[in-house]
Design goal:
Length: 315
């Protein structure tokens, strides 16, 4: 059986995400994202592409005066509201198009978060302009993506070479400059597949969208895996060497001169480095930020006399 769209994934994603996120979120993406967002007590927060709303509720429970989740998937919003009704946090959930949110006044939010959702939005430029409108003068936008340089749909793969006493891992990328929509497969069960649409864009394109919206990049982070994902995912050790995700923080031009709190640097294992090494650095909203989850070890095919090449990514 084949399903299409985020509504088709809503219940499956809700089950996997729960209240703490799935493996790829809780042990890889979210720690870097939340460190960059920082404390939210006393702030207003907008969660774009909220899915089942686990982050929205977390922000509210951490003291946000208002936490709003928005998603284009009515199935995801219904599940978010169901969870909220069962264990009230005060979070709000709205179905809507992230590129057009007239219900909110300009400058309404101190923090805007888009966790693995911007690459699933067709009108990313319009969405970023709208988020800039909603961002308070001294607010910050924080978003995460599949890394535009290293994780570009089926045109990127792991390359594993086995030598007599060691193994080397590299990342093969082709067609980086070719921006296009991509059909993303999700295996729901042994008999069910679902597909959503993603949009590969270059890093320069995202930078231009931010600039055109009057936003400046403050910092970027490339999440390193926590020990849990290194243990549980065959790709964990590979991601410790080559990042598959990117987290970006931006602010209005006239506020960008005020540096954000530094993030601790992390080594390949994801551990914090010493303090001396720390430095700052139709349009729809994709449901819950997608994890681009890979299932199992990379498929390998023999390569003339030299190890193996990672096959197509599976999410």
């Amino acid at each position: 059986m084949t399903k299409v769209g985020w509504n088709a994934l809503a219940e499956w994603r809700d089950f996997r995400m729960g209240e703490v996120g799935d493996l790829w979120h809780r042990a890889l993406i979210d720690p870097s994202l939340l460190a960059m967002v920082g404390p939210v007590r006393g702030l207003t927060v907008l969660d774009v592409g909220c899915g089942n709303g686990y982050l929205t509720r977390r922000f509210k429970r951490r003291g946000a005066t208002r936490a709003v989740g928005v998603d284009a998937s009515i199935g995801s919003i219904r599940l978010a509201r169901k969870r909220e009704a069962a264990h009230p946090s005060g979070a709000e959930f709205v179905r809507g198009d992230a590129a057009r949110m007239p219900r909110f006044p300009a400058g309404a939010f101190d923090r805007i978060v888009a966790n693995m959702s911007l690459m699933d939005i067709r009108d990313a430029a319009g969405t970023i302009r709208e988020l800039a409108r909603l961002l308070a003068p001294d607010g910050r936008l924080v978003f995460s993506l599949s890394h535009p340089c290293f994780d570009i749909d089926e045109r990127s793969a792991w390359v594993v070479e086995r030598h007599p006493y060691r193994e080397t891992v590299a990342r093969k990328v082709e067609g980086y400059r070719h921006e296009r929509p991509v059909r993303v497969p999700w295996k729901l069960s042994e008999t069910e597949m679902a597909y959503t649409t993603s949009y590969h864009r270059t890093l320069a394109t995202y930078s231009r969208y931010l600039h055109d919206a009057g936003l400046a990049i403050l910092r970027m982070a490339e999440p390193a895996p926590k020990p849990e994902i290194v243990r549980k995912s065959p790709q964990g050790p590979y991601i410790a060497a080559i990042p598959l995700h990117l987290v970006v923080e931006a602010a209005h031009f006239d506020r960008a001169v005020h540096a954000s709190p530094p993030l601790a640097s992390r080594g390949p294992s994801g551990q914090r480095g010493p303090a001396s090494s720390r430095k700052g650095v139709g349009p729809t909203v994709g449901s819950v930020g997608r994890t681009r989850e890979r299932r199992g070890a990379p498929h390998r095919r023999r390569r003339a006399g030299r190890g193996s090449v990672g096959g197509p990514r599976r999410r």
